[in-house]
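Contributing new complexes? Match this layout with adenosine-5'-diphosphate.
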Amino acid sequence: MIILVINSGSSSLKYQVRDSATGERLANGLIERIGDSAHGGPRDHAEALDRVTQELESTLQGRSIDAVGHRVVHGGERFSEPVLVTNEIIRAIERLNPLAPLHNPANVQGIRAIADRWPSMKQVAVFDTAFHRTLPEHAWRYAVPDDLYKKFGIRRYGFHGTSFEYVTRHAAGLLGLPAQEFTGIIAHLGNGASITAVQGGRSIDTSMGFTPLEGLVMGTRSGDIDPSILLFLSREGYTEKDLDRLLNRESGLVGLTGHNDMRSVEESGDAGTVALDIASYRLAKYIGGYHVAVGGAQALVFTAGIGENSWRFRERVVNRLSALGIFIDDAENQKPGGSPREISTEESAFPVLVVPTDEEAAIAEATAAVVDSA
Ligand code: ADP
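Output block (do not edit by hand):
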């Protein structure tokens, strides 16, 4: 099936066209500045879609789109799997808007734009939170008054689920196991970063929480901090907007070094070293914790931009894990490579793997599967 994969943001729309059977990428693109027609951007998501259709006409050469798969950030407590989009599903995604005020409304605009243009097109929503619907209550509950959960849905949801599900399958494949027998720890380290404890193929804990801010040190996000820092700063006159910007855009690697890109951080001298120490130490602590959570990991997996490409960062992290008895082979670690591979030594207590993620391929596969079974 030819699947159009859409990742619709408030002011941008990323798309790819994939052949779900072969994984082949037939087209990809990015429409920016939605809503900013003064600077040449499309007026809205419908007009952005006009541009996508124009771009696709030449690349697809007469082949047509069979179905559209959407990345939807928040599936709340309802969605544990990809679903065929109906009006009721759209309303359900909209009801989750308060939990993801920047993302879900934009995702719905993408879905509506397609429905308006191609009313009979099959659309599938693939949720970033879905893979984490298997978290046990002791992992998803925060120790706050019950009312906050009942009234506002304040709990851990977890994100990057499409990636974790995909990497679970491919890591298991590399180890010669079915996905449901994979027990290990997966670190998705991109601009946003999170880590998941997988037991028997299911997510049992993950570092992002109510929002994608909790957990690891990221490109521009702080990850874990003492929540009282927010109270302190608000008493000092910081507004809600200030705090949002501070923790989501001005913290993490960029806050520590002035750079959010790992390649620049690695080249930025002493400040870079401190930042990498903080980030690798935080990650190593999570790995130790999740080793306990899964009852003994059978693999540690690195994925996404940093996890796949920065051998220096992988080395820093694994060097902190000698208590777990795991070791990497320097030559294997430093080899570039785009396919799943093992980088640990023979002596390592369990394998350390690098497994490239591919969220668009996963969305295309999931979309085709849902459409097939509908
Ligand atoms: P996103 O979360 O935006 O999808 P990616 O998964 O593409 O992000 O990861 C982006 C991160 O990967 C950036 O910090 C970038 O510096 C890092 N990265 C990409 N290639 C390399 C490389 N060769 N060496 C070190 N870091 C890399």
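Reviewers usually confirm one structural detail per submission. For this one: Residues 190-192, 219, 261-263, 304-306, 309-310 surround adenosine-5'-diphosphate (CB under 6 Å).
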